UniProtKB/TrEMBL annotation:
It comes from Actinocatenispora comari. The keyword Membrane applies. Residues 35-324 form the ABC transmembrane type-1 domain. The keyword Cell wall biogenesis/degradation does not apply. GO terms for cellular component: plasma membrane. This is ABC transporter ATP-binding protein. The chain crosses the membrane at residues 34-56, 76-104, 179-197, 263-286. Residues 355-588 form the ABC transporter domain. Belongs to the ABC transporter superfamily. Siderophore-Fe(3+) uptake transporter (SIUT) (TC 3.A.1.21) family. It is found in: Cell inner membrane.
Length: 603
């Protein structure tokens, strides 16, 4: 991966971000809209009850007229007008709350995404090293979208679910308490049964999340790893794991459904409109028979009682949205709490491009030291090779130079200036790096190469591509330099690596850190790239993490790492003569690569 701060917009914003923005809660950007949603929802709930009350009051006016009593036309009209206005207010506020909610949601998503991007830009590069793009995608997409239901729907649903029953019951109790009590019965049964259904719910949801994650892991392994798995004849095992996880998931959902089915059925039954209507009619008939109420008094109980349970049922789905939104909020809060890379208060400029490490120690977890007491100097115009057994700390050491991580003790300096005191934009300009995980953007090859210098001319792009031995390959693509990576430019790992080398060449960083492991993946062009790299090294400070020892026989110095320390240092000839760790590595290397070593390799 070649990175240059010229392409890093974070730097442009550095220092401009007010602390306030960082400290504010998630919902701060839409606080006003949330207040409007609350007011509109309550108003909407209240006005949705009014037409029902109006029908009751109309009935009270009109039914006596059937037995010849006079109609109070003024009162009837007043009721009708109030009902119509309430109806419009109810529709208007529901629409308004929905619209405000969706606009607020869009605003919140935009604000959160910007905040995520700002935070991502301030995290140490090492954070990205340890995370897949899936982690970042989850934050920017899934977690932000999970808040959608909360802002755009759940607030309105929850307030309606509470306000409508409360207002309806208040009216019912004020006009006819016996039927109000009858209307409460389905609610009371639901309230008593719901906790039974949700018993151990938190644990169940945790198990559900676990089973879902295990199943999706097994599915991804099964699908993605199919080639490797087939190659090693393990299809049966991988398939078995997938089947086991599916069985586990289905078994869990089955048990959960069975455990809750009785309570769920009771709730569904007692809240269904037919059952509620039948119950209220029966209660009404019994009260009329008993002479406790007149037939017309049964009407409000039926009309308003029927509307009590509907909104309540929405609470169930809202609870699920709230759960998801809370989880997303937690994951976003944890992300925002990640410490950002400290920025120098008053940045200093490096004087030259000598790279020096002075008694550098480092650990990833604050406990196990991966690098100990490293001291080394790499002069401009020289090539330094880092070699050593796997896990000895080569990549870690290289990553300290462009500040993927900060040292625990000691200093890393460029031109005598501590890298922590250099403005990150200047640091990334000074250090180009090509690591193992090649990152090409879904853009044309020309744009990929000029990533760090967007103003570079076509000729400059071509010159860099020639030097990185990728020009001829690009010309063979259907649209040459305009071919788009991942569409009509499908490159091999080695070819993609050479595009990133071209990018590094064009970026013209005076310090270059290369991981040789894949830089020379294509044996055909290895010597050509070697030539390109030696041209590069002419006036640059080059550090190469070397795995194929014959490629660094001409290095100006070789640092041999073992267990996080520099065990030996010197030229190839010095180290072979010294007969230590490197000499043994070289002997083994020659024995293992006897046939593939190019002619004339120093032995
Ligand atoms: N991101 C990380 N978090 C925690 N430990 C890590 C991380 N990266 C590397 N390590 C550990 O640090 C040690 C040094 O790893 P490093 O990758 O620097 O070695 P290396 O010499 O480059 O190995 P290789 O040649 O296999 O690439 C190893 O023990 C490794 O497990």
């Amino acid at each position: 991966m070649v990175v240059d701060a010229a392409t890093d917009p974070a730097q442009a914003e550095n220092g401009r971000l007010p602390n306030r923005v960082r400290e504010e809660g998630f919902f701060a950007p839409v606080r006003g809209s949330l207040a409007a949603i609350i007011v509109l929802s309550v108003l909407g709930a209240a006005s949705s009850v009014v037409p029902l009350i109006a029908i009751v009051e109309l009935a009270r006016e009109l039914v006596p007229a059937l037995s010849g009593q006079p109609i109070h036309a003024g009162r009837v009209w007043a009721i009708v007008i109030v009902a119509v206005i309430a109806l419009f207010v109810s529709f208007g506020t529901a629409f308004g709350a929905g619209a405000v909610g969706h606009f607020a949601d869009a605003g919140l998503q935009l604000a959160l995404r910007r905040r995520i991007i700002r935070h991502l830009q301030r995290l140490p590069l090492g954070w990205f090293d340890q995370r897949s793009s899936g982690t970042v995608r989850k934050l920017v997409e899934n977690d932000v979208v999970a808040l959608h239901q909360l802002v755009a729907h759940a607030i309105q649903d929850v307030l309606t679910a509470i306000a409508v029953p409360v207002l309806s019951l208040a009216y019912l109790f004020s006009v006819q308490w016996q039927l109000a009590v009858a209307a409460l019965v389905p609610l009371a049964i639901t309230a008593a049964t719901y906790p039974l259904m949700m018993r151990g719910g938190a644990e169940k949801y945790r198990q559900y999340d676990e089973a879902t994650a295990a199943l999706s892991g097994a599915t991804i392994e099964f699908v993605h790893g199919i080639a490797v798995v087939k190659r090693f004849g393990q299809v049966g095992r991988s398939h078995r794991r997938y089947q086991e996880e599916t069985r586990r998931y289905v078994g869990f959902v089955d048990r959960w459904t069975r455990d809750t089915s009785t309570a769920f059925t009771i709730i569904e039954l007692v809240t269904s409109p037919v059952v509620v209507l039948a119950w209220l009619l029966a209660a009404g008939a019994w009260l009329v028979n008993a002479g406790a109420v007149t037939p017309i008094d049964v009407l409000p109980g039926i009309l308003l009682g029927l509307g009590l349970t509907g909104p309540l049922m929405k609470l169930g789905s809202s609870a699920q949205f709230l759960r998801n939104a809370t989880k997303a909020q937690q994951s976003l809060a944890e992300f925002f709490a990640l410490p950002t890379m400290p920025q120098p208060a008053s940045p200093r400029h490096p004087a030259g491009h000598q790279v020096a490490l002075d008694t550098v120690s480092f650990s990833y977890d604050g406990q196990h030291r991966v690098l100990r007491e490293i001291a080394a100097a790499c002069a401009p115009g020289t090539l330094t090779a880092l070699v050593g057994p796997s896990g000895s700390g080569k990549s870690t050491l290289a990553k300290l130079i462009p500040r993927f991580y900060d040292v625990e003790t000691g200093t890393v300096t460029i031109g005598g200036t501590d890298v922590r005191s250099i403005d990150p934009a200047e640091l990334y300009h000074a250090v180009g790096f090509v690591f193992q995980d090649v990152q090409l953007l879904r853009a044309s090859l020309a744009d990929n190469i000029r990533l760090a210098r967007p103003q570079a001319t076509d000729t400059e792009v071509e010159t860099a591509a020639r030097a990185a031995q990728i020009h001829d390959r690009i010309l063979r693509l259907p649209r040459g330099y305009d071919s788009v990576v991942g569409e009509d430019a499908n490159l091999s790992g080695g070819e993609a690596q050479r595009v990133t080398i071209a990018r590094a060449l064009l970026a013209d960083a005076p310090i270059l850190v290369l991981d040789e492991a894949t830089a020379f993946a294509d044996p055909d062009s290895e010597s050509a790239i070697q030539t390109a790299l030696s041209t590069l090294a002419a006036d640059r400070t080059v550090l190469v993490i070397a795995h194929r020892l014959h490629t660094i026989t001409h290095a100006d110095q070789i640092l041999v790492l073992a267990d996080g320390r520099i065990a030996e240092r010197g030229t190839h000839a010095d180290l072979v003569t010294a007969g230590g760790l490197f000499a043994r590595m070289w002997t083994d290397y020659q024995a293992n690569h006897a046939r593939s070593l190019p002619e004339g390799v120093q032995r």
